[in-house]
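Worked example 4.2. Below are the chains of a multi-component assembly; read each line carefully before continuing.
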Amino acid sequence: MNKIIKILGTGCPKCKQTTNIVTEVVKENNIEATIIKVEDIMEIMEYNIMSTPAVVIDEKIAIKGRIPSKAELIDILKN
Amino acid sequence: MFDWIQKISNYLVYTALGMSQKSHLAEALDFFIYDTIKILILLFIIIFLMGIVNSYFPVDKVRNYLSRNKLYGFEYLVASLFGVVTPFCSCSSIPLFIGFVKGGIPLGVTFSFLITSPLVNEVAIGLFIGLFGIKTTIIYVLSGIILGVISGIILQKLKLEKHLTPWVQRILTNSEMEQNRFISEKQTLKQRLPIIWNEVINILKGILPYVIVGIAIGGLMHGYIPEGFFEQYMSKDNLFAVPISTILAVPMYSNASGILPVVQVLVAKGIPLGTAIAFMMGVIGLSLPEAMLLKKVMNIKLIGIFFGVVTLCIIISGYIFNLIF
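Applying the procedure described above to all two chains together yields the following structure tokens:
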């Protein structure tokens, strides 16, 4: 099943790092997923978050306000 | 408390490297090693402790608390205090701002949070303890909190809602005491620690080069600027010193880690502490990149008023410090 992973962030270094980690995890574990970067603030606010970066998987907020670790992401993505 | 670092540093410089006790370079190196180790340890401890506190008071909880409870004027203080424990990232300031507005939190209270959050952060506190000692740190933290409260109250009184951008005003009229969709994570401290630990390492990694360069520049200046050099230019009697240094500081966008070690040397060489603190607050608390970001939610006029009020409060606190010390 193809997962939609959205990374919410206005382009700060932390958000870029998060994107890199997500991309790596998806690649290394052969997870079927589409990664979308959301940088528009109005769109970000629709998710009702107050700290970026955030990772949204299939429209559910999984991580917010920090850079996730690889192990954590694998854990979330496999469930 | 830090004698053992001095011993390590002495050993490295004079025994391991075999440098002469009399050489200026050896002295500077000794100073540099000692300061760097001490400050890194303090930063580590403070960032870690703040990380634990923040993990239990995430910004969502803060917002919900402020949104649901009537605090009869204390909401400014609460917002300001929460600003202290919340690590600030300028890229989060917009989502934060909107989130607060959405929760029906008054604009002034939101500003209190936005002012204190960058001004009194874990990195600044760690550096302050290392460079200026506990007493000055407490004064800095307390004045940062008071500054956030007073500026917030003033900004609220000015009734500035009309200067928000139209889409934010729309959110404002639709604001409600909402129940957050996000269910707060119920985790034990043991589960939280690895996450906090990662954050600590991330922050430390990010600021490490600035800290080292800052301490190195500070160390060099220590050796070359004569004692009391600044006293003739920036004595307490010079009434213009505080406003000039504050206004100079606002466009300077440096993170605290680079600028604080340098300011410490300036104080050692005769700049009054109040003037120096006003300068540091200007550098740390107000930055132009942040102002540019805020343009998405408010018009230039409001940004100007916001920065103006905070600058004024910083200048006043600079004078007060100079009177006290």
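Take a moment to check your reading of the output against the notes. Helices of chain A lie at 13-28, 41-45, 70-78. The longest strand of chain A covers residues 3-8.
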